[in-house]
Amino acid sequence: MIERMLWHPVALSTEVVDRPVAAQLLGEAVVLWRDRAGSGPGRVHAWADKCPHRGAKLSLGRVQVDVQGASSLECAYHGWQFDSTGHCALVPALPTFAPPAAHCAKTFQAHEAYGLVWVQLDAAQTSLPVFPAHTDENLRKVHCGPYEVATSAPRVVENFLDMAHFAFVHEGYLGARDTTAQADYAVERTMHGIRATGCRAWQPQSHANASQGADVSYTYEVVAPYAAQLTKVPDPLTGKPVEWRESIALWVCPLTPETSRVWFTMAVADFETAASELQNFQNTIFMQDKPVLESQTPARLPLDLRAELHTTADKASAAYRRYLQDSGITFGVC
Ligand code: FES
Ligand SMILES: [Fe+2]
User: Fold this and answer.
1) What's the pTM value of the predicted model, to 2 decimals?
2) Nearest-atom index, ligand 1, CA of 51
3) Does residue 51's CB lie within 6 angstroms of at least one atom of ligand 1?
4) Residue ranges matching CATH 3.90.380.10 in the chain
5) pLDDT of residue 283
6) Which residues surround ligand 2, an ion (CB under 5 A)?
7) For the chain, where do the domains classified as CATH 2.102.10.10 start and end?
């Protein structure tokens, strides 16, 4: 399955501190734990959340640090200790036994980027989704989520690309009922996914501390099957100077084919507003989306374009479905 070779976000880096954390990815139970590097926090590890001895969840265990400073994950059941490579280093019931190499936990690739822990289930030469705004020092990064959503990851991504719902689902915030017409926009394929440019909207309150409505111009980019970004700037066609811009990354973890965990990373020029205020705004917007998302049937995104009706206003969605099809994605689609 191609999805197992891709990198997926599974938790915020700040969630993985000194005890194991249970996560889920593509139907697999995963345990995350962080070793120690000297006196500070070290690397994050992602393993199957299943002890190879009797199948207990390793996430119930604890992180142990020995006198040399080496870290291991100790199973909660019989105390077997697994070093940071996954090898079993100690069976407490047989303290002098040297476990063979085959006594090991199942390990996955783990990496930290953009404030999140990323996991790849099957080793392959694939890179993380790009997020250029993250390295822009003039933009402040604020994480929102996780949000648990009872639908497939592709339904969440498609909703993020969809502007025609603003006036209805986000009335008074991202849209208004007297400006429902959607101007034409362009969609193209990119190296990583798709890009939609020239997307325009009138937004009564386009961000947390907007004091008045604004014409906003968006660029959307799908950068991986379950990851997308939008960049908002005031509409250049109105001739007003660009006073602010923001980029929002959507990261979706496909937990199961019909459940997802979602984060947003906001990259904003606003360094003054409290992070909690920016997060509250995003929470409000996403809580408006969630019941609609969870009501959609089928929960898996139909890739056959004849399965649902499409108009020109939906061309970003249609391009996204074609891209998933061409990429060989099978998880969360039908
Ligand atoms: S089940 Fe983990 S040590 Fe026995
Ligand atoms: Fe929405």
Assistant:
1) 0.95
2) 2
3) yes
4) 136-327
5) 97
6) 289
7) 2-120
